[in-house]
Structures are given as structure tokens and as C-alpha cells.
Amino acid sequence: QLQASGGGLVQAGGSLRLSCAASGLTFSNYVMGWFRQAPGKEREFVGYISWNGRSTDYVDFVKGRFTISRENAKNTVYLQMNSLEPEDTAVYYCAANRSPYSAYYSRLDKYDYWGQGTQVTVSS
């Protein structure tokens, strides 16, 4: 299971840190991804972090603002979001992927486990 937390209401330009705690799986075996879904839109990829934390990648519209990190000893992955914009308003989801293929890490259908989502609202 994956449990996301840390969402809330923040003003534009502010910051939030989301957390995602894993249980019932060998966390260090999984690539962890973050996705988001805005009202009326499809769920979209935000970024991922490799199993050992040495590699990350992000979608262009969050590069330089968002950072993904993980603590395998705590079975937790984080999404640090800075310089938030109203367009970042969405439900944010964490997900776990055991595929060895990096080309799969931006694909929703390649993730094995999903968290329940946490709401992030950015006011202008």
C-alpha cells in the first residue's frame, strides 16, 4: 500500500512537501513516480526517482521547481514543490513501478501500485 500525505492550500509562489509512505512491499525494489490529475483532465506524469535515489527525471513544466527524493530506510518518497502556480492545482498521486525499463517510468499503465492521492490547491 501507498499512503500519500502533505497536500493542502497554498498561495502562488509558496511551497509544499508531499510524502508517500509504502507498506507491504519491498520499497527499495521499486522506482517511485509522482503523477497528478487536475479537474477535468487526465492524470499526468510529474516525475520519478530510481530505486536507489541516484536518478530522477521530471516533466518539463516542473523542472527546476519540483524535486523528488526518497528514504528507503523509512519506505518513503517525497515530492518537494516550490514556486507553486495555480496551474499546479491537482490531486497528486504516488505510484510504484518495478520495471527495469526507464521508458516505462512516465507511463501510468506500467505502475504496479498507487496511493490514494492528496489534494494540492494553489491560490492566485
Explain what this protein looks like in three dimensions.
β5 (44-49) and β6 form a beta hairpin. The radius of gyration is 13 Å and the shape is globular. With 124 residues, the protein is mainly beta. Helices cover 0% and strands 48% of the residues. The protein has no helices and eleven strands. The strands form two sheets. Strands 2, 4, 5, 6, 9, 10 and 11 form a seven-stranded mixed β-sheet that branches.
The helicity comes to: under 10%
Q: Structural class, from helix and strand content?
A: mainly beta
So what's the overall shape?
A: globular
The profile of the biggest β sheet is: 7 strands, mixed
Distance between the termini: 34 Å
> What portion of the residues fall into strands of 2 or more residues?
over 45%
Contiguous uncertain segments of 5+ residues: none
H and E string:
EEEEEEEEEEE
Mean pLDDT: 96
How many runs of DSSP E, i.e. beta strands? 11
| Radius of gyration from CA coordinates | 13 Å
**Number of separate helices:** 0
Give the helix/strand layout:
Blueprint: E1 2-5, E2 8-11, E3 16-22, E4 31-37, E5 44-49, E6 56-58, E7 66-71, E8 76-81, E9 90-97, E10 113-114, E11 118-123
Parallel strand pairs: 2-11
Antiparallel strand pairs: 1-3, 3-8, 4-5, 4-9, 5-6, 7-8, 9-10, 9-11
